[in-house]
Amino acid sequence: MDSRRVKQILSSSADIHVEYNGASVWIDELHEDGKTATVHLRGPLEERSTVDISELEEV
């Protein structure tokens, strides 16, 4: 995924399905470097991780 698409997803009110390593995640923010983002798993766990946006996949 590229930074332009991450920004579109963040600004959208739609429920856009994104996966990281096969797990469904929410994107919390795109970092200033434009290459990483903070995400957390969909569901009850709120643990956040910083990931490379190239590893995010829109499903």
Describe the structure in your own words.
The chain has 59 residues and is of the alpha+beta class. The chain has one domain (3-58): SH3 type barrels (Roll). Helices cover 15% and strands 42% of the residues. The chain has a five-stranded antiparallel β-sheet with strand order 4-3-2-1-5.
Q: What would the keywords be for this entry?
A:
5-stranded antiparallel beta sheet, 59 residues, alpha+beta, 1 helix, SH3 type barrels, globular
CATH class: Mainly Beta
Per DSSP E runs of 2 or more residues, the count of β-strands stands at: 5
How far apart, in Å, are the first and last alpha carbons? 11 Å
Largest sheet: 5 strands, antiparallel
Helix vs. strand class: alpha+beta
Could you say how many structural domains there are in total? 1
Summarize the structure.
This protein has one helix at 3-11; strands at residues 18-20, 23-30, 36-41, 48-52, 56-58. The protein has 59 residues and is of the alpha+beta class.
Strand and helix map with partners:
Layout: H1 3-11, E1 18-20, E2 23-30, E3 36-41, E4 48-52, E5 56-58
